[in-house]
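Supplementary material to the annual report.
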Amino acid sequence: MEEIEGYTVVPLRMSSDALHCHSVYMREHFIRLMDPNKPKGRTLFLLNIPPYVTEESLKGFFKRAGNVESVQFAAKPGKDETIKWYEGTNEPFSNVRPPFIFKVAYVVFQKSSSIGKALAVPSIDLFHSSGESTIKTGMELWHEESPNIWPTTTEESERAALAAKNSEADADGWVTVGKEGRNAGFEQKESVIGRLEKKRENDTKTKELKNFYTFQIRESKMQNIVEMRKKFEGG
Amino acid sequence: MGKIKKIQRKGPPATKRPPKAARTESTDSALGLDAHSDLEKPATSSDDGFEEPTPKPKPSKKTTTLPEPVSIIAQKKNKFRTDDAKNVKPPTLEEMKELRDTRNLFHSNLFKLQVKEMLEELQLKTKYTEYIDNWMESFTVFTQRLKDGLVEKSQLEVPLNVDKKISGFIFSKPTKEPQLIGAASTGTLLGPKIVVDVALEMPKDCLHKDDYLNLIYDQKRALYLTYVTNQMRSDPAYSQDKFAFNYHGNNPLKPVLELTPAAKHVSKHLQLRLFITAPQSTFKPGRFVPWNNNIRPTYYNDEWDEEEALPSTQHYNASVLFDLTLAQNQALLDKAFKGRRNFQDGLLLLKVWLRQRELDRGFTGFGSHILASFIVYLNQQRILHQSSSSYQVARTVWNQLANTDWTNGITLAPASGQTEQLSTIAGYYDVCFMDVSGQLNLCANVPLGVYQRVRAEAKLAVDLLNDMKLNSFPYIFMQKCPLYTRVDNILKITNYSSIQQMLVLHSKPQMKYDFASYGYPQLLQILTELLQKGLKQRVQAILPIETVSSAWPVESKAPIIGQAIQLGLILDPEHAYEVLDKGPSSNDDPEGSAEFRKFWGEKSNLRRFQDGSITEAVVWGTTKDAPSKKRLIVRQIVMHLLEHHLQLDSKDIQYIAAELDLVYQLSPWFKVSKVKTKLELQQDTDAEALSPNVIRCYDDLARQLHALDDLPLEIVSISSISPVSRYCEPMPVLPQARMMADHIHASHIQRVIIQLGQSGKWPNELSALRALKTAFLIEIGEKLKAQCRLNWSITSEGLLVLKRGFCFLLELAHNKELALLKQEVTERGVTKYVDNPESRALEQRHYILPKVSGALHSLHQSHSAYGPTVLIAKRWLATQLLDDGIWPPMATELLVAHLYQQRNAPQAIAAPQTGFMRLLHLLAHSDWNGELFLLNFNSSWQEQQIGDLEHSFRSDRQSYPPLALATSYDQQHAGRLWTTGESPSLRILSHVSRLARHALEMIETSLQSKDLRFVRPAQLFRGSSEGYDLVIQLKSDLVPNALSYDLGSPFVSFDQPNYLLPRAGKDPLAAIVHQLRSAYSDYAAFFYNPHGGKELAIMWRPPAVFAPKAFKVTELQACTLCDKGKVQVVRETLVEDFKVLLKDFYLRISTPEELKREQREHQNPKRYFNAKPQDNESCSKSKKRKLAKAAKVQAPLKRKSLIKSRPLKSLS
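Predicted assembly:
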């Protein structure tokens, strides 16, 4: 078993006779500010996961070390990286997919004893005993993807989505007050606020004489020169 | 023009800004901004910032002369300093003047700076001027040492081909000193090859008064040259130099000595040419007037009727006069140019302009000495003022060129000097510009076509200068526009016997005497007259394309030139493709009718037309013919005329037109008869001819959609955004989409964007909105099925609809979706709308692309060559293994549109092939870093906006992608919408430039060569196999072939093609390559031909990427552990990854060399990666079989193809 800077290095094999394999670097996940989704003592941290590896395939493999609660990916180690990774992918009717790049993985086991077992595996084998890979690539992948990508029927999810909007009082008895209703207030948009601020500015501004005093005329001429310089020399 | 390098935009030199100087009363009055300055008027000699004709007091001087108000300024200065110390500095008089003039003369300072910088770069280095001066000195001494004597047979050949040679020429030493002439004398030498012309005058003693007759003068001139050359060669001062003879201006009567000095520091760029002239008083003044004959018919042993007047030899006379009047003309030019930097610079600008257009070449060229004389002429006429700036000189010359007509003659000679009637002289020539002596026509050899071309170019230059929305500098000076890219078709006759046949049988004897039996101008005249008469308004101009004769060593015999001719035809797209030539009515004009019949021969038939008239007419095709066929009508006519009138066989002629149009034709492998459709399809159809079918079908669909009943919301607009709708789809789209087992299969999908009427009831949440959109699409689909009986299916992208064998993908566009995508909530709870890549893509697809599509469609309507040009360009890029992922297809379309929209040539392009060559030029020579390609459709952008954009582009170049494109519809994203930093990346962009340069080289060589045919499409449209590290060969039966004409892959030879229909909108190969790029682009680049390419070429990134490096958690991607605690990326591992991702698709992996070797040896191809010797054959085979089995289960639709694949492979 090779080790480097506290990481256990194991090859990731796609078939039983694979010669050139990627190295996966693993260790127990430990940082000061723990993420509740990656509980201390039960989470295995893996570096350098090839892009085509899926959550299911890792979950399937690490079952041998104990029951796996979840597998999460991220582009790099860090606090909110996992959230960023999955951003937009869980929404219905969205075509967003997680990026297809080398990534890191967090395997959360149900028992902390599984970590040691997991760190002792000689290699991560992502193929069945029959030799077939547990990851779908190539022709399989592109033929499987069916045009109906949404799980529920369209109408149902539509209804669900619409229902989410017209929310009544929630469990604690709070009602979300939106822009509907009698006293909705103005919309908190940048453009609206900007317009209001501009209006106020205009109101406060007194009417002033612009081309009256000699110094004003001189200054406007000056301004003219500045503009000409900017146009013909600046840039 | 290697010399004119990219002109970097520089700020104004620091010295220009004068020190804080007095702000006097006069500055205030100067601020009055009386902005009137007529550019054409010479009287307002305003300074535009160029070198002043008169020295100007230096600003520093100025401050010293006005010392008084200093105390006042001191206060004021402080006041201004508080504002903005940099910009609000009191202006000086000079600065005010300069600023104001800049504003009046130029739209922007940029043009001025660019011109100034170019002129600076064109200035001759002192080492050359010094060398020339020294050389002249020593040469003068040399000529004085020459001795008189009889010229014996020297070892040098006399550089002249004449029938009857004279003997006993007695050399007498020159009495006058040799002189610099031409550019060297006027101080307007232009690089990169600096040619210094020196004239040596033969003394009168050498010539007799009868020598004017029958080329004796020319022979003596040549003998004199030979003698001087001989003497120079034996002189130690010159013996090291390289001697060669050449013809001046492709004129075989004007041999000159070309001397390349041996001196190291100049020999690369400097060349000296020695002309021999004769004093003007040698012959009687009236001897060489145009109507005199100076070559007798008897000289050529021809009979001539004694009674008849001898034929005039005006062109020959002009050739002699050129020598005789040279000294006088040069004196005039010297007087005008010496010491006037402004005139010299003006001429330099004009010379650059002319040379970029290649109009000054060869016998018929519009030489720059004509321009120099014209400047003098304008000065004489008081149109150009002595103190006009160089810019004004150039501008006035263009303006006057465009607006005057020289066919009636203009003259430099003073009223007393012009003895003969100008109009009489003009009658003998096409174009007439008399010199100062009033005898020589400077434009004697310039044919009307070339002159008209120069005028058109000059007019364009003025228009470009006047166009406020454009920085015209690159178009006028920087862009190289060789003639062949400006003509639509090229006629090339190089066959020796055909040329002789034309000269002997069809040239009039008078022409032979006139040109002293020089073949070229005779051929030119014969062909131009014939073609002009036959093509009439189909052709706008017929231009000679000359190649400059090459020098020959002095020991060898002078070559005979003019034995080949190349003509360029500029077509008038409005008339060129008419299928009918109608003659005069046979009843009203029987004579004209007979003549018409005689002219056209058997092609002409008596026809009765619908309006009842009966006339002779020639029919070249039917109106229903495909556009590509119609484009060949002119070729048909030319071929017929040449055969009928000049008895030239089509195999002796090369007519270069539409050779490259082949690439978008339907592949001959695909049999059209197999497509079930009601449309009439031809086997030899092409993508261009098929597009209207799709567009018609789309129109029908749009009508049906509009007519749908009971939709909850009305359909407001429907627009198509597919390339087909703007004639830019290079693959022939055939109506073969169909429903198979609940799935629609189609080779292409046509994207259609639908907008619905307004409603306030759309949800405020993205997924809900998308859900509702999908529901809407399903509703539309169901209604289409019920009301119009069209099949549909829903996908994640939109609604697929099948109609008449075409497949459409309908998408709903909604404003709210865009807003929701952009929406961001700040910490203060304020909603903000910010662009992000996703929203930008959506906006482009749903809102901008429909508009641009419409604009491009209308561009195609006005320029019918636009579409086909794009087709050729897209095919070319595809065959160079550049797919959509690395070169966005819209970039191609917009660049071609840019070519058609920008008026960088006086005539619009009529032939797609020419359009493609111009695109190659654009790709090869563009300064990507400095240029933003703006397509101002409908001129909807204002000057101010354009100015702002260009300003931001220049000052903030980094934030724009390497190739910046903007249209008038994408203002807020200008320059960033169509291209990104990755597609095309800087690397790809320079790669494309290189490819384009290579392609142009091939085209140019084939055009210039006498023997080569025009470049074959297969030479251009097959990528190179060099430079790639690995090639992954894909299974040929899994990748459908392109429907367009395939010219083969760079790696393997032809294989059995397949035309499987993929599932609509699915392109697995493209998807996999996209994956590969997103994961592995740091380590390798991937290339494939998106038009049915069956190989994936891979290029590794530089070795540094694969070097061992220290362990770092954040930089571990794809790294394997190696020695000493270091990690590294291993190529073999990556190859394994590629194999995993390309599972089922890849046949084997090898290097291109291996592949080539195998192809050559026709070996049994090895199945798997060769670099893996352990790979045991039986194992892989069994694995393969298993895979095939798996694929069969997974994809029942592919079963047929997979079974087919086995016998196929056993064949190979």
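Chain A touches chain B through 70 residues (CB under 8 Å).
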